[in-house]
């Protein structure tokens, strides 16, 4: 079945460690996005990519990095420079920004 | 100020009630989306619309472009409808999201 898969669902890391969240889609979508969700706030854009080998910073890119080496994959690295990394992270993809978006199940990251 | 505002923030209804969730936006948009987020966190797209009205089962979404307003209606609500409903718009090359409406339907 086509879809978008995030892994893992839950992730625990020690403060100061980098951690990479996986996002894979088999929908042949060009555009992929990473969002962060905090209680009481709307989804905030971290990074987005409209095509392979190209990505753009979103509103809260500081402390995060991404790569888009393959159309299907858009991993997000939360670096030690991110001051408050504990959050729920959602990956999404779409054919383009003006079409329906498909979301993954999310990864809940807890930094201790 | 957020580009997308939703109301109410929280809503509790009895099973069978008709429910309305409202969304207002302040930017020029190419499309508006209604999303559903269940307690586990995953998000499902319910509707994408740029004009008029769409219906899927017990769900109805409407949009008024001139007033920059959209509503999501749920008829004959059921406990399984309990979730967070999120309004989002596409403007430029980005999505903008409301903070969500948390709906609880009591049996």
Task: Please summarize what this structure is.
Chain A contains no helices and eleven strands. Chain A has 112 residues and is an all-beta fold.
What letter string, H or E per element, gives the SSE order of chain B? Answer: EEEEEEEEEEE
- Our measurement of the CA-to-CA distance between the termini of chain B, rounded to an integer number of angstroms, reads 36 Å
Largest interface: A-B, 25 and 25 residues
Q: How many H/I helices of chain A?
A: 0
Topology:
The complex is a heterodimer of chains A (112) and B (107).
Chain A: E1 4-7, E2 10-13, E3 19-25, E4 31-37, E5 44-51, E6 54-57, E7 64-66, E8 76-78, E9 87-94, E10 102-103, E11 107-111
Parallel strand pairs in A: 2-11
Antiparallel strand pairs in A: 1-3, 3-8, 4-5, 4-9, 5-6, 7-8, 9-10, 9-11
Chain B: E1 4-7, E2 10-14, E3 19-25, E4 31-37, E5 43-49, E6 52-56, E7 59-64, E8 69-74, E9 83-91, E10 94-97, E11 101-106
Parallel strand pairs in B: 2-11
Antiparallel strand pairs in B: 1-3, 3-8, 4-5, 4-9, 6-7, 7-8, 9-10, 9-11
Explain this structure.
- The complex is a heterodimer of chains A (112) and B (107).
- Chain A has 112 residues and is mainly β.
- Chain A is 0% helix and 49% strand.
- Chain A has no helices and eleven strands.
- In chain A, strands 2, 4, 5, 6, 9, 10 and 11 form a seven-stranded mixed sheet that branches.
- In chain B, strand 9 (83-91) and strand 10 (94-97) form a beta hairpin.
- Chain B is globular.
- At the A-B interface, strand 4, strand 5, strand 9 and strand 10 of A face strand 4, strand 5, strand 9 and strand 10 of B.
Features:
A: mainly beta; 7-stranded mixed beta sheet; 4-stranded antiparallel beta sheet; B: 107 residues; 6-stranded mixed beta sheet; 11 strands
């Amino acid at each position: 079945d086509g879809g978008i898969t995030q892994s893992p669902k839950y992730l625990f890391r020690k403060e100061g460690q980098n951690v990479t969240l996986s996002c894979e889609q088999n929908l042949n979508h060009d555009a992929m996005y990473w969002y962060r969700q905090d209680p009481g706030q709307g989804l905030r854009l971290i990074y987005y990519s409209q095509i392979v080998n190209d990505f753009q910073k979103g509103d809260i890119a500081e402390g995060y990095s991404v790569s888009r080496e393959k159309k299907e994959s858009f991993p997000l690295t939360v670096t030690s420079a991110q001051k408050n990394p504990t959050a729920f992270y959602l990956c999404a993809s779409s054919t383009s920004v003006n079409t329906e978006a498909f979301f993954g199940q999310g990864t809940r990251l807890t930094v201790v | 100020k957020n580009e997308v505002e939703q109301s109410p923030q929280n809503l509790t209804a009895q099973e069978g009630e008709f429910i309305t969730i409202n969304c207002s936006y302040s930017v020029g948009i190419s499309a508006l989306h209604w999303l559903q987020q269940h307690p586990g966190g995953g998000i499902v797209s319910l509707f994408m619309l740029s004009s008029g009205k769409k219906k899927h089962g017990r769900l109805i979404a409407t949009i008024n472009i001139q007033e920059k307003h959209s509503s999501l209606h749920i008829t004959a609500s059921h406990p399984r409808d309990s979730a967070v409903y999120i309004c989002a718009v596409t403007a430029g090359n980005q999505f903008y999201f409301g903070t969500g409406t948390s709906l609880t339907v009591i049996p």
